[in-house]
Design a protein that fits this description.
The complex is a heterodimer of chains A (215) and B (220). Chain A is α/β, with parallel strands linked by helices and 215 residues long. Chain A has five helices and nine strands. The chains are: A alpha/beta (215), B mainly alpha (220). The interface between A and B is medium-sized, with 24 and 20 residues.
Chain lengths: 215, 220
Amino acid sequence: MNQETPYFQTQFAQYRVQIRNAEARFDGRVLFTDLTADVSSGELLWIVGENGIGKTTLLKMLAGLIRLPPKCIGWYDGSGAIRPESSLSYQTHNGYTKAGLTLAEDFEFWGRMVTGSCPPLSALSYVGLATALSTKTQHLSAGQKRRLSLARLLVANRPIWVMDEPMAGLDADGRSLVTDIVRQHLARGGMAVIASHNPADIAAERVMRLTLGRQ
Amino acid sequence: MRAIIARDIKLAMRSGGHWALSLIFFALFLALCGIAMGGQMTRLSELSLPLTWLAFIFAALLSVSQIFRGEMEDGSLAQFKLAGIGMGTVSAAKLINYALLTLLPLVVMTPLLSQLFGLNGPQIAGLIISLLIGLPAVAIYMGLSGALLCGQKTGGFLAILISAPLMIPTLIFGVAAAKAFPDSGIMAAELRILFGLSLVSVALGFPAIIAALSANLETS
């Protein structure tokens, strides 16, 4: 599908993340402890585990949205430690759309916020939303919202993707779109961290599987 | 920041008049006060300044929970952070919107509603000037309760408990300034104190709002 697209032209520099003895608690209950992993550019970290085991918590930790003890999770590029905010896109489980805006307006707003300029609407056609541009976001289906967040990932053009259940709500065509997009992202030196129940059908060359919870 | 403000104004215009809730409450509260006082003009005009200030603060309280909660609940706040937009910019944009869409319409409506109480020109001018000067303080304190509570599902009554003590000095000097204006004019000491209170509240309250938002974001 669409091998020649403008979205995957950037070749990313080397990034890596070190997770060292990370642990999470909720209401005094331990979700996971002693979690250790290393992921580099071009690699896919696949996080699996039962419901409520802390997958989303781990993603938020990786995105820098939860404060952690120092050295628990460290992001590095070629020259040293970095803050993940500037290089990372976080695709949440329930897309952050504002009821009242149309799809195109919402897409443009976030494109401007992340890149500082008006994003190309062609990204919406690329993810199969060309016919829904003027639909209000509250009328979008779960799958359409998921496709919208894919388009946001594309235009944000950041090297690290953190994705929470990217396959949820998508039809077969949508799932192959996610697979295709993630593959191309990895091929250009990007990194992806994906939490999902679905079997790892993104057959990337370097997939690492991380199982949370009782093993 | 302009993009956030523009988006929120667009959202407010499409919300089916939801933004006017405070305005309607303000008008109804003052109209009902007039009826409750039995329409005696002398008593009414005496009480109208404190009543208008009270109505202003209650109407402002009505929308407190809406200032930040929407952004927090749908994850937009986290995305702003990831987009490299500081909490300071987001808070400033949301507060400016709150002031423009909730508080300013109340001030604009005030001359009309003052007719209920038979206020004269200088009294109306004093009331409007005191409300405008006190507006930043009201916006900041309401913003602070909104920011503290945006991680909670409910908390309307906590918002009142948090902002009421903070609002007392503004209320006292707001009413005093409105009273003093017809005699002493714009240089009235009460107006200057109110102005000082407003500036202090912005200087102290704004960093507190940013801290509260960041803390709520990290625990949500």
